[in-house]
């Protein structure tokens, strides 16, 4: 980090130290997990920049899932699963902040489960998780490992429930699908009650998730992102840096 970025990071750390117990909420996107080797979506090296038979944005839609399940699972399993990924400095720092009572909740757009793997407990997954899966017919739950086994057992590569034969769908929110109402309500409540809101690793361009910050009425709004966002002018502090560099207090 250059001197200006380092000073901004130190300011954020001072604000965190000054935050009352449970007064901080973290809202993160794909940039939180890039240091774990998981690509984001919109950067030059992200998922949307890669060449595929269909546009990636189309392949992660519910209509594409329904019409082309085989192609969906090819893309999903090859490009969106990173089961060997480990939590990075940002994940671990947030878990420590929750442990010491400062951080009220992590609200994430990510589906990788790395916050929980790092030790965070109050994680609100706006877009679901690759670790959970369920039969679309009988509702039977399946681990991601079992989903992969079921996919390998079928010639078309589509995982199907052994009990009823219906497709096993990942518990992730696809385009054209609504967010889970309970998770959304909990996220709105957490942000509305926060004194310090730190938004990191997200372009704030995906709605309705990006609109959640409109309910924030606290003292300090901080945005940590390598590129500018549409909400920068509303922030009390903007830091153009990797999330791990900013949150790693050591």
TrEMBL record:
<feature type="binding site">
    <location>
        <position position="34"/>
    </location>
    <ligand>
        <name>NAD(+)</name>
    </ligand>
</feature>
<feature type="binding site">
    <location>
        <position position="164"/>
    </location>
    <ligand>
        <name>Zn(2+)</name>
    </ligand>
</feature>
<dbReference type="GO" id="GO:0070403">
    <property type="term" value="F:NAD+ binding"/>
</dbReference>
<dbReference type="GO" id="GO:0017136">
    <property type="term" value="F:histone deacetylase activity, NAD-dependent"/>
</dbReference>
<keyword id="KW-0808">Transferase</keyword>
<feature type="domain" description="Deacetylase sirtuin-type">
    <location>
        <begin position="1"/>
        <end position="250"/>
    </location>
</feature>
<protein>
    <recommendedName>
        <fullName>NAD-dependent protein deacetylase</fullName>
        <ecNumber>2.3.1.286</ecNumber>
    </recommendedName>
</protein>
<keyword id="KW-0862">Zinc</keyword>
<feature type="binding site">
    <location>
        <position position="202"/>
    </location>
    <ligand>
        <name>NAD(+)</name>
    </ligand>
</feature>
<dbReference type="InterPro" id="IPR050134">
    <property type="entry name" value="NAD-dep_sirtuin_deacylases"/>
</dbReference>
<keyword id="KW-0520">NAD</keyword>
<feature type="binding site">
    <location>
        <position position="135"/>
    </location>
    <ligand>
        <name>Zn(2+)</name>
    </ligand>
</feature>
<feature type="binding site">
    <location>
        <position position="138"/>
    </location>
    <ligand>
        <name>Zn(2+)</name>
    </ligand>
</feature>
<feature type="binding site">
    <location>
        <position position="112"/>
    </location>
    <ligand>
        <name>nicotinamide</name>
    </ligand>
</feature>
<feature type="binding site">
    <location>
        <position position="127"/>
    </location>
    <ligand>
        <name>NAD(+)</name>
    </ligand>
</feature>
<dbReference type="Pfam" id="PF02146">
    <property type="entry name" value="SIR2"/>
</dbReference>
<dbReference type="InterPro" id="IPR026590">
    <property type="entry name" value="Ssirtuin_cat_dom"/>
</dbReference>
<comment type="similarity">
    <text>Belongs to the sirtuin family. Class U subfamily.</text>
</comment>
<feature type="binding site">
    <location>
        <position position="41"/>
    </location>
    <ligand>
        <name>NAD(+)</name>
    </ligand>
</feature>
<feature type="binding site">
    <location>
        <position position="30"/>
    </location>
    <ligand>
        <name>NAD(+)</name>
    </ligand>
</feature>
<feature type="binding site">
    <location>
        <position position="41"/>
    </location>
    <ligand>
        <name>nicotinamide</name>
    </ligand>
</feature>
<feature type="binding site">
    <location>
        <position position="243"/>
    </location>
    <ligand>
        <name>NAD(+)</name>
    </ligand>
</feature>
<dbReference type="InterPro" id="IPR003000">
    <property type="entry name" value="Sirtuin"/>
</dbReference>
<dbReference type="GO" id="GO:0008270">
    <property type="term" value="F:zinc ion binding"/>
</dbReference>
<dbReference type="InterPro" id="IPR029035">
    <property type="entry name" value="DHS-like_NAD/FAD-binding_dom"/>
</dbReference>
<feature type="binding site">
    <location>
        <position position="112"/>
    </location>
    <ligand>
        <name>NAD(+)</name>
    </ligand>
</feature>
<feature type="binding site">
    <location>
        <position position="109"/>
    </location>
    <ligand>
        <name>NAD(+)</name>
    </ligand>
</feature>
<feature type="binding site">
    <location>
        <position position="111"/>
    </location>
    <ligand>
        <name>NAD(+)</name>
    </ligand>
</feature>
<dbReference type="GO" id="GO:0005737">
    <property type="term" value="C:cytoplasm"/>
</dbReference>
<comment type="function">
    <text>NAD-dependent protein deacetylase which modulates the activities of several enzymes which are inactive in their acetylated form.</text>
</comment>
<dbReference type="InterPro" id="IPR026591">
    <property type="entry name" value="Sirtuin_cat_small_dom_sf"/>
</dbReference>
<dbReference type="InterPro" id="IPR028628">
    <property type="entry name" value="Sirtuin_class_U"/>
</dbReference>
<keyword id="KW-0479">Metal-binding</keyword>
<feature type="active site" description="Proton acceptor">
    <location>
        <position position="127"/>
    </location>
</feature>
<feature type="binding site">
    <location>
        <position position="203"/>
    </location>
    <ligand>
        <name>NAD(+)</name>
    </ligand>
</feature>
<feature type="binding site">
    <location>
        <position position="111"/>
    </location>
    <ligand>
        <name>nicotinamide</name>
    </ligand>
</feature>
<keyword id="KW-0963">Cytoplasm</keyword>
<feature type="binding site">
    <location>
        <position position="161"/>
    </location>
    <ligand>
        <name>Zn(2+)</name>
    </ligand>
</feature>
<feature type="binding site">
    <location>
        <position position="225"/>
    </location>
    <ligand>
        <name>NAD(+)</name>
    </ligand>
</feature>
<feature type="binding site">
    <location>
        <position position="42"/>
    </location>
    <ligand>
        <name>NAD(+)</name>
    </ligand>
</feature>
């Amino acid at each position: 980090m250059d001197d200006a970025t380092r000073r901004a990071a130190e300011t954020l750390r001072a604000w965190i130290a000054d935050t009352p117990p449970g007064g901080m909420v973290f809202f993160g996107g794909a940039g939180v997990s890039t240091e774990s080797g998981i690509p984001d979506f919109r950067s030059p090296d992200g998922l949307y920049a890669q060449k595929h038979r269909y546009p990636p944005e189309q392949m992660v839609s519910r209509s594409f899932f329904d019409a082309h399940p085989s192609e969906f699972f090819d893309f999903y399993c090859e490009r969106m699963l990173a089961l060997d990924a480990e939590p990075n400095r940002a994940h671990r720092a947030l878990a420590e902040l929750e442990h010491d009572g400062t951080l009220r909740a992590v609200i994430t757009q990510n589906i990788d489960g790395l916050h929980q793997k790092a030790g965070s407990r109050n994680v609100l997954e706006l877009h679901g998780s690759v670790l959970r899966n369920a039969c679309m017919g009988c509702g039977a739950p399946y681990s991601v490992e079992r989903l992969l086994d079921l996919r390998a057992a079928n010639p078309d590569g589509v995982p199907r429930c052994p009990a009823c034969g219906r497709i096993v769908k990942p518990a992730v929110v696809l385009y054209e699908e609504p967010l889970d109402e309970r998770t959304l309500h909990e996220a709105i409540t957490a942000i509305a009650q926060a004194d310090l809101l730190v938004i990191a690793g997200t372009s704030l361009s995906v709605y309705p998730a990006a609109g959640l910050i409109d309910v924030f009425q606290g003292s300090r709004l901080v945005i940590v992102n390598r590129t500018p966002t549409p909400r920068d002018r509303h922030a009390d502090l903007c830091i153009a840096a990797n999330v791990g560099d900013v949150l790693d207090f050591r």
